[in-house]
Amino acid sequence: MIMRILLLLATVLMSVVARGEPLQLYVAAEGNDAGTGASVNESFATLQRARDEIRKRKPHGAIVHVRGGTYRLAEPLTLGAEDSGEADAPIVYEAGALSETPVISGGVAITGWRANGHGWWE
């Protein structure tokens, strides 16, 4: 009986070790997509770059820490089924810290407006 329990524990432990920790990546508005994304100092600049790195590495789970700032998207960020991970190893995008607020914007700034003196802008 003890041998069975030890064998079961060894199997569970080997499974946990084989899967390892989830991949940790960092994205910052002032980052650089040529970086590694592996630390705050090597942050990627875009969510697309983090997504592509996860797709390339195919890890068993990942956490993307998105630092505070505004991320202006030139095109939609497309995520498919392969970008969600597995039930026991999800791929998660989260704020880099509780005090930070990342803003993902697909909007375009419209400039050059001026008041026309009649309560309207033109």
The separation of the N and C termini measures 83 Å
- The succession of helices and strands, N to C, reads HEHEEEEE
Oligomer: single chain
pLDDT < 50 runs, ≥5 residues: 5-9
What's the number of extended β-strand segments? 6
Residue share in helices?
10-25%
Specify Rg, calculated over alpha carbons: 21 Å
The coarse overall form would be: elongated
Mean residue pLDDT? 87
Strand content: 15-25%
Sheet with the most strands?
4 strands, mixed
Widest sheet, order of strands:
1-2-5-4
Instruction: Assign the structural class, choosing from mainly alpha, mainly beta, alpha/beta, alpha+beta, or little secondary structure.
Output: alpha/beta
Concise synopsis of the structure shown:
The protein contains two helices and six strands; from the N terminus they run αβαβββββ. The protein is α/β, with parallel strands linked by helices and 122 residues long. A four-stranded mixed sheet has the order 1-2-5-4, covered by helices on one side.
SSE map:
Blueprint: H1 2-19, E1 23-27, H2 47-57, E2 62-66, E3 69-72, E4 85-86, E5 89-95, E6 102-105
Parallel strand pairs: 1-2, 2-5, 3-6
Antiparallel strand pairs: 4-5
Task: List the keywords.
single chain, 122 residues, 24% helix
Describe the protein's architecture and organization.
By secondary structure, the protein is α/β, with parallel strands linked by helices. Helices cover 24% and strands 22% of the residues. The chain has 2 helices and 6 strands, in the order αβαβββββ. It has a 4-stranded mixed β-sheet, covered by helices on one side. Strands 3-6 form a two-stranded parallel sheet. The chain is elongated and about 85 Å long.
